[in-house]
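quick one: hypoxanthine bound model?
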Amino acid sequence: MQNLDSQKLSETLAFIQSKTSIRPFAGIILGSGLGGLVEALDISLSLSYEEIPHFPVSTVKGHGGKLLFGTLNGKQVVMLSGRFHYYEGYTMQETTFPVRVMHALGAELLMVSNAAGGMHPEFHVGDLMIINDHINLFPEHPLRGKNDEKYGPRFPDMTEPYQLNLVKQAKQIAENNSIKLFEGVYIGLQGPTFETKAEYKWLHVIGGDAVGMSTVPEVIVAIHCGMKVFGMSVITDLGIREEMNTITHEEVLEAANAAAPKMAFIFKELLGQL
Ligand code: HPA
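yep, here:
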């Protein structure tokens, strides 16, 4: 088994390039309830996933299901509005296929966002966290399989998947605009259950500040492609408090929606500075 179907990638690319000549500088993936950035995008082309050859179709409430091209704060970008989660039943290759497409279209930078559960004791619902590192707890690896060196190395280095200079720059933007912003480690696991109390505790003990069901596979593939990565989590629920309540998808979406404008602002400003 190959870890990438290059034939499919070429066909998807040919279709998209027959619709637009945009060469995006960055690819942006919007997480649950974080669609706010779409409003800031000057859209030149919108493709629904159904019409793109070999693109999976999103099944989760709150996910838009569109590949958007346009300009954001002076930079050409391609935006995935609605991502593909492993828990939906997609393979790791399907989950990460859009990242391959973004890179093949020319994107040098991947900006990812997600909704996540907070484990850091200082976190509150609605806080923002820049991802400065991750722990991969997915049961399957997106690069498993025969590797074609043309698309990336067999053993990618992961010492700094999230560019620390971008972390610094984003923190500066937040400080200049009085936005409270944390940085920390994101743990990615498959879901779709939220964590038990014991699991949240354990995830914190092993070094996690936030936990979610996405992002890590996409970032691994971006690194494989040689892209730079910047990521942010919106803390939508808290895992390690005594008073911890039950968590629902609706609450997660509500908290993400409320924090989305702050996150969109940081993405936009950062992009403008690059
Ligand atoms: N756990 C896992 N995924 C999540 C959470 C969580 O608490 N919140 C939002 N996505």
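Helices lie at 6-17, 37-40, 92-105, 164-176, 197-205, 216-225, 249-273.
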